[in-house]
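Note to self: keep these together.
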Amino acid sequence: MTAILRQVTIRGRVQGVGYRVWVAQTAESYGLDGWVRNRRDGSVEALFAGAEVTVADMIAKCHHGPSASRVDAVAVEEAGAELLAQRGAGERFSILPTV
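Structure:
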């Protein structure tokens, strides 16, 4: 199984609706590494690292999000391993401060 990293930006009504916590809980349940954070432009950004099929499943879930959210767009880019260093020390998946 090949491990991949994907950086994802989610736009819509995704702040103030529990989206980051939902991403963190869902990613952890899938066994993914990475992080999630709000951006000042109103979007949510996430990094997912893991098996290709699992990362793809997580990204597919991001198109829907928690029930209070409304997702308008999900952009996906390949990412480098250096982005994993932004996680909290000893954490597999982190909720990071807003940037």
